[in-house]
Every structure is written in C-alpha cells, then in structure tokens.
C-alpha cells in the first residue's frame, strides 16, 4: 500500500446529482422541481413555511433573557489564593493582573471577585478586587490581611491601562468623599 493507492471505501463519496443535462438523464428540463407553482421558480426560499398556518417557532412562547449589560467577573475563592500562596506561586499584593500572569485565571473580564472558601484561610496578604463577599472580607481581616475593594470606575481605568493622572484624580475624589462622610458622622455623634 502506497500513498497514491489510498482510496475511500466504495460508496463513501457519492457524486452530486447533475440536474438540467437533458431529458434522457431523468433530471432534465424541470430538474425534478415539478411543472408549476412557487417552488418550481428560482429565487424562492420558504424557510419554516407551514402551508399558511402559524409556524411552530412562532407558536412557542418566548423564554429567557440575555442581558447585554451583564458584568463578567473572574471569580476566585480564598481557598485557591491560600493554596497558591503556600506553594510559593503568589507573593506580595494579589490583584487580577497577578492572578492572570500566574495563570490562575484565564481572563480578567470586568474585574476580580473574591469569595469565601470552605478551608481555613491564614495568609496575611493584601488582596485588591472589584467585588468581594462579606464572608471573604471578614475571613481576610481575621487572618491579619486586607481585602481592598476598588470602585468600578477606578477598576475600569486600571483595566484600560489609564493608571496615570485620571485614575489618581478619581481615587483622590473617592478618598475625599470618604473623609467627608467620616467627619460628618463624628460631628453627628458629638451633637448627641
């Protein structure tokens, strides 16, 4: 057996029917379309036509919804972070970019979301995320670490690579607002 002797099994490749090649061929003249009517003409595509009745795909009720504005976060549990810290893969500040470079997550998407795991967490690391569950924040603070949740606007700027003046300005504005709120809270306490 040589490469030039390789063949398909008999009947594996069936040649297409050649229509319109004379009346003697059996598929000549009208080419098996019949004599008259809409389908005997060219340029007709009746897809889902059911003889005038309401088609099945229009009789079925609509269900489901695809939100075009839905956010897609890279979700990581504290168990995963603990495992990679103990194995020496992660060190220092843990962000979406460091997790991606370590190939723990495949893509960042709209940011990083940290959730609480089932195993005990003991690492004293700083985690920067876009979203975090209340349980995750509590567990990290008990372990002696910090879980910083960035506002979505700052996270977007960081994602786009605009970490310069604009991102710093937004961050300063947020810090000022937080300081103002804290000041007002202390004033209201003093009045009481």
Question: Could you explain how this protein is built, in words?
Answer:
The chain is α/β, with parallel strands linked by helices. It has a domain at 74-173: Ribosomal Protein L15, Chain: K, domain 2, CATH 3.100.10.10. It has 6 helices and 5 strands, in the order H-E-H-H-E-E-E-H-E-H-H. It has helices at 56-59, 78-86, 96-101, 134-143, 152-159, 165-191, and strands spanning 74-77, 112-115, 126-129, 131-132, 146-149. The strands form 2 sheets. It has a 3-stranded parallel beta sheet with strand order 1-2-4. Helix 5 runs antiparallel to helix 6 (165-191). The longest helix is centred in the C-terminal third of the chain and has 27 residues, at 165-191. It is elongated and about 105 Å long.
What's the mean pLDDT score? 85
The CATH class designation of the domain at 74-173 is Alpha Beta
SSE class: alpha/beta
**Strand order of the main beta sheet, please?**
1-2-4
pLDDT < 50 stretches: none
Q: How large a portion of the residues is in β-strands, by DSSP E?
A: 5-15%
Overall, the morphology is elongated
Describe this structure in a few short sentences.
The chain is of the alpha/beta class. It has a domain at 74-173: Ribosomal Protein L15, Chain: K, domain 2, CATH 3.100.10.10. The chain has helices at residues 56-59, 78-86, 96-101, 134-143, 152-159, 165-191; strands spanning 74-77, 112-115, 126-129, 131-132, 146-149.
Protein traits:
single chain; 192 residues; alpha/beta; Ribosomal Protein L15, Chain: K, domain 2; three-stranded parallel β-sheet; two-stranded parallel ribbon; 5 strands; 33% helix; elongated
